[in-house]
Design goal:
This protein folds into two domains: 240 residues, Type I PLP-dependent aspartate aminotransferase-like (Major domain) (Aspartate Aminotransferase, domain 2, 3-Layer(aba) Sandwich), CATH 3.40.640; 136 residues, Aspartate Aminotransferase, domain 1, CATH 3.90.1150. It has 14 helices and twelve strands. The N and C termini lie far apart (60 Å).
Length: 384
């Protein structure tokens, strides 16, 4: 029977435990498994390779993304790194320019040293990806909505171009989650998540995932997963599965609050500009509405007065927590130039629009009145 997303989030990959009937997958806190004879086992040899709790998470994530295969990792960066390890020296990657600072650091400071070549192009310009492709291009890397400028990449336009050239496309779907956007249905070969964010949803676990329906890529990435060993422990997998069960209801509330906060910020005199795909003034609003169920719960805005105004705003907030990361039930706020994107050279940050007045917020599920009042007080401090 075909099941809806909300049902899959609770049940996919998690049948009742056969011995006791437990409705939650147990935490198989073991490093190894007994064998009846040399090489004679029940599918489990060592927990770096397979663990039943991780199996459940991988099956669950694959079902949510509409993929055949799921692979869980110890962090989102580990998931990204595993895909890069499937490439060879001299290979070329075309990437959106506005990506998470950790992704840029991994590409530019780690894998470039090991012989991969990267070209960063304007994220929202589909033609830019085609222009950057050359005979050595082996991968196109998208992130949509992007971090922190919330540009929207037209996934179908890029994957159509890439398919004609036999180039796989990866989409970092962390900001959208599979509840709001499913890139594989739009032609992507691989999907990446930092499950630390909305999927876990409670700021209590770090993890990553790669999802695909391509059997060859599954073999390549899963080989690296086992060989390099950057896998999550069973407790992390259990916590992520617990968070995923409420993903749909959480995202509905996240989005409801974000729409209200975006409108509030857009009408505040202390705010120079608001970046949110749900606003009609967003340059890719129409694309976002076409390829996403809803515009998400991440908002970036520019406060008038630059860095000092931003500091005044960020100090003294009572409901929003000044912290890196995103996607938890609590609202978080941060300064990209100093915090999440500090690894990007200043001139490059400024060229992309990551200035000293830019602030990024992850809108949580608290009462909207409290969120609005907290930001209003902060904006009054910023304007003083």
């Amino acid at each position: 029977m075909s099941q809806k997303f909300e049902t899959l989030a609770i049940h996919a990959g998690c049948p009742q435990e056969p011995v006791t009937g437990a409705v939650n997958i147990p935490i198989f806190q073991t490093s190894t498994y007994g064998q009846s004879g040399p090489g004679e086992h029940r599918g489990f040899e060592y927990s770096r390779t397979r663990n039943p709790t991780r199996d459940a998470l991988e099956a669950n994530l694959a079902a949510l993304e509409g993929a055949r295969h799921g692979m869980a990792f110890g962090s989102g960066c580990a998931a990204t790194d595993a895909i890069m390890h499937c490439l060879s020296q001299g290979d070329h990657v075309v990437s959106a320019d506005d990506v998470y600072g950790g992704t840029f650091r991994l590409f530019d400071k780690v894998h470039r040293r090991h012989g991969l070549d990267f070209t960063f192009v304007p994220a929202a310009d589909p033609d830019a990806y085609a222009r950057a492709v050359n005979e050595r291009t082996k991968l196109i890397w998208l992130e949509t909505p992007t971090n922190p400028l919330l540009s929207i990449v037209d996934i179908e336009a890029v994957t159509k171009m890439a398919k004609a050239r036999n180039i796989p496309v990866v989409v970092d779907n962390t900001f959208a989650t599979p509840y709001l956007q499913q890139p594989i249905s739009m032609g992507a070969t691989l999907v990446v998540h930092s499950v630390t964010k909305y999927l876990g949803g409670h700021s209590d676990v770090v993890g990553g995932a790669v999802l695909t329906s391509d059997d060859e890529w599954f073999q390549r990435v899963s080989f690296v997963q086992n060989a390099a060993g950057a896998v999550p422990g069973p407790m992390d997998c259990f916590l992520t599965l617990r968070g995923i069960k409420t993903l749909a209801v959480r995202m509905d509330r996240h989005v409801e609050n974000a729409r209200a906060i975006a409108g509030f910020l857009a009408s505040n005199a202390a705010v120079e500009s608001v970046i949110y795909p749900g606003l009609e003034g967003h340059p890719q609003h129409a694309i976002a509405m076409r390829q996403m169920r809803a515009p998400g719960a991440m908002i970036s805005f520019v406060v008038r007065g630059g860095l000092e105004a931003a500091r005044r705003l960020l100090r003294g907030l009572e409901v929003f927590t000044l912290a890196e990361s995103l996607g938890g039930v609590e609202s978080l706020i941060e300064h990209p130039a100093i915090m999440t994107h500090a690894s990007i050279p200043k001139e490059m940050r400024l060229a992309r629009g990551i200035g000293d007045g830019l602030i990024r917020i992850s809108v949580g599920i608290e009462h909207i009145d409290d969120l609005r009042a907290d930001l209003e007080a902060g904006l009054l401090r910023a304007a003083s």
